[in-house]
């Protein structure tokens, strides 16, 4: 009996096997504990994001209207209506153009301010707080204030330009095509540049000062140090900020809705605003839900770019 037990390799585990078994058991317990701790957050995400997303897709295939029951299944009728709408393609072009213009503006302004705030001078902390004000202020207040400032009759901007003799008659900034477009881009950029400046400033402070000292010794000027030290040092931060801000800017509703309302003549209408007009003003929830679903591929590509970029940077 003893001889058989000793000769059987499965009857007695080696120390290495026992250690591996304990390690596997510990990992299984950790995995179970991890899922137990993450489960509430997963349920919240499913309830607050997953279910509304599913409902939006479902409603986009129905003729649901506010106050008229659940609606009937109409297939791709809502999508055909949106794609056949004469101004849909221009709306997509406007959305992309506004997003690119605002992101480029915010990147340039934020980088300039970050470089300035990274220098040592008296009152730097106070100025940092002042430059953060646009980001802290509620978007609703910002849009209404700029709407008052740019009013074509009683706006402060027109009054200042008239009093200084720069213009002879009031300019309807929000009632003309190009001035309305420029105003919208300016307000979106003004509201968002502090996020860029703050993030770029944090990135600048991670660059070792020794690199700049060595570059000065080698005879590199300001532009050389900016090109070969500052920009490479900010590459990771800039990539993440620009990609995330592109998604946020493209989905922005408050400023276009409160500042121009899509006018004049739909020249500032972007896809979140079209969704609002169709779904909430016209009560056509089916068609309103179809608009963001049609824009989903663009948003999805941007989200995948952010995820792949973050994963690649984490590996490096």
What does this protein look like?
The protein has about 325 residues and is mostly helical. It folds into two domains: about 10-60; about 85-315, MetI-like fold (Orthogonal Bundle). It has helices spanning about 1-5, 15-60, 75-85, 90-115, 125-130, 135, 140-150, 155-165, 175-205, 210-215, 220-250, 255-260, 270-280, 285-315. Helix 3 crosses helix 14, helix 4 crosses helix 9 (about 175-205) and helix 4 (about 90-115) packs across helix 11. The radius of gyration is 28 Å and the shape is flat. Residues about 1-5 have low confidence and may be disordered.
What would the keywords be for this entry?
single chain; mainly alpha; 2 domains; disordered N terminus
Number of DSSP helical runs:
14
Q: Helical percent range?
A: over 70%
**How many β-strand runs?**
0
The largest pleated sheet is described as:
none
| Total count of domains | 2
CATH topology of the largest domain: MetI-like fold
Spans with pLDDT under 50 lasting ≥5 residues? Answer: 1-7
Mean of the pLDDT scores? 84
Q: What fraction strand?
A: under 5%
Helix-strand string: HHHHHHHHHHHHHH
The Rg value, from CA coordinates, equals 28 Å
N- to C-terminal distance: 58 Å
Q: Give the overall form.
A: flat
Name of the CATH superfamily of the largest domain: MetI-like
Q: Which CATH class of the largest domain is shown?
A: Mainly Alpha
Q: By helix and strand content, what is the structural category?
A: mainly alpha
CATH architecture annotation of the largest domain? Orthogonal Bundle
